[in-house]
Amino acid sequence: MSGITIYHNPQCGTSRNTLALIRNSGAEPEIIEYLKTPPDRETLKRLVADMGMSVRDVIRQKGTPYAELKLDDPAVSDEALIDAMLAHPILMNRPIVVTPLGTRLCRPSEAVLDILPAPQQGAFSKEDGEQVINDKGERVAGV
């Protein structure tokens, strides 16, 4: 194992690109498909804390029951937001990657490059064709 974990949704392009960048560094991460195996309360709280984000920043709004659950109400507590994510894992934004160098919500996918222990091993382009890594394994300027 590489010591890298990705909370992954294979239906999400950003998540697939992030996983591909991890693999392009030569690592094979532990893949947790969080919609099938959601984190427990303690793990979710630790992930949020380790990212240095608020619980609200980790909630996904698009394509989720966010509005119908009225989670946009600022009076909804962090504990209630976590309860909602545990009941509806689709509310958890993704992908979240944990490495020995840190924990990040990798949106955009190239945010993972800041926490990968090993360098990229070759060129990489996202699914949409945008080049992120050149043929020398270096980050493309502006990305």
Beta strand count: 6
- Put simply, the count of helices is 3
- In the CATH classification, which architecture of one domain applies? 3-Layer(aba) Sandwich
The radius of gyration over CA amounts to 16 Å
* Major β-sheet annotation: 4 strands, mixed
Instruction: Record the strand order, biggest sheet.
Output: 2-1-3-4
- What would you call the shape? elongated
In N-to-C order, the SSE pattern is: EHEHHEEEE
* CA-CA gap between termini: 28 Å
Q: What are the salient characteristics of this protein?
A:
four-stranded mixed β-sheet, two-stranded antiparallel sheet, 143 residues, Glutaredoxin, single chain, alpha+beta
List the helices and strands and how they pair.
Blueprint: E1 5-8, H1 13-24, E2 30-33, H2 41-51, H3 78-87, E3 96-99, E4 102-105, E5 124-125, E6 131-133
Parallel strand pairs: 1-2
Antiparallel strand pairs: 1-3, 3-4, 5-6
Structure explained in plain terms:
This protein is of the alpha+beta class and 143 residues long. It has a domain at 1-34 and 94-143: Glutaredoxin (3-Layer(aba) Sandwich), CATH 3.40.30. The protein is built from 3 helices and 6 strands. The strands form 2 sheets. The chain has a 4-stranded mixed sheet with strand order 2-1-3-4. Strands 5-6 form a two-stranded antiparallel ribbon. It is elongated. The two termini are 28 Å apart. The model has no long low-confidence stretch (mean pLDDT 96).
Gist of the model:
By secondary structure, the chain is α+β, with helices and mostly antiparallel strands. It is built from 3 helices and 6 strands; from the N terminus they run βαβααββββ. The chain has a domain at 1-34 and 94-143: Glutaredoxin, CATH 3.40.30.
